[in-house]
């Protein structure tokens, strides 16, 4: 006698699983669209890195007496540039240290400031040191610099730059400056040499709240 095939009840996917799958798909599509918007915005804005540089300088005074006391006075022109045509840049925490043979002479600082689109801001720093006692080796270095009519100062420091990327957030840069400023002591003339912070460390600061609003709006449109 042939046996009858008995089939059990058909198993169906739980509606909650379908809802989760649809939601994940919608979120994935929304993230892709937001990524495309950011990419297109980058191509439209085409941002460039703001830079800090020394454009010129002058050695106003250099004195080294027999007692080993060293005094100097310099004028240094530092410029902040923003080559972005569609976004202004802001700078903060600007601080540079001027030194000679490892001896700190002065700290150059600036309050937070903004630079307009395709603009620049220039700061003329007038630095005057107090009497700095030198050891015999450092005195020899100064004497040699005077004889060769060439003396070098070090300028090191950083400034934090920021510009906004569309509606999603901003990008922050730490612009580090590390230059050797060379002068002719007899005339005080500055020897032009590259001194810029084009290599900067950066990080993104994305506005996740706004990103969430965009995704929620897209999900609402998709569901409707």
UniProtKB/TrEMBL annotation:
Q: Which GO BP terms sit in this record?
A: defense response to other organism
**Chief location bin:** membrane
This protein's superkingdom?
Answer: Eukaryota
Point out the signal peptide segment: none
What keywords does the record list, in alphabetical order?
Membrane, Transmembrane, Transmembrane helix
Q: Where is this gene product found?
A: Membrane
Q: Membrane-spanning regions, if any?
A: 16-45
GO annotation, cellular component aspect: plasma membrane
Under the heading PANTHER family, the entry gives:
LATE EMBRYOGENESIS ABUNDANT (LEA) HYDROXYPROLINE-RICH GLYCOPROTEIN FAMILY, LATE EMBRYOGENESIS ABUNDANT PROTEIN
The name under which this protein is listed is Late embryogenesis abundant protein LEA-2 subgroup domain-containing protein
Q: What species is given as this protein's source? A: Cannabis sativa (Hemp)
């Amino acid at each position: 006698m042939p046996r009858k095939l008995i089939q059990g009840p058909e198993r169906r996917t739980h509606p909650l699983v379908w809802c989760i799958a649809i939601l994940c798909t919608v979120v994935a599509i929304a993230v892709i669209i937001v990524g495309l918007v950011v990419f297109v915005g980058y191509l439209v804005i085409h941002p460039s890195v703001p830079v800090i540089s020394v454009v010129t300088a002058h050695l106003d005074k250099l004195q080294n007496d027999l007692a080993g006391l060293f005094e100097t006075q310099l004028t240094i022109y530092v410029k902040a540039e923003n080559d972005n045509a569609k976004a202004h840049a802001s700078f903060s925490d600007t601080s540079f240290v001027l030194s000679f043979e490892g001896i700190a002479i002065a700290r150059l600082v600036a309050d937070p400031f903004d630079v307009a689109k395709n603009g620049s801001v220039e700061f003329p720093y007038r630095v005057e040191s107090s009497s700095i006692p030198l050891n015999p080796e450092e005195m020899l270095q100064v004497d040699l610099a005077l004889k060769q009519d060439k003396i070098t100062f070090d300028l090191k420091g950083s400034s934090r730059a920021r510009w906004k990327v569309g509606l999603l957030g901003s990008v922050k840069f730490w612009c580090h400056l590390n230059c050797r400023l060379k002068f002719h002591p007899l005339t005080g003339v500055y020897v032009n040499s590259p001194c810029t912070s084009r290599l900067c460390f950066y990080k993104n600061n994305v506005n996740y709240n706004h990103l969430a609003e965009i995704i929620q709006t897209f999900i609402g449109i998709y569901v409707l």
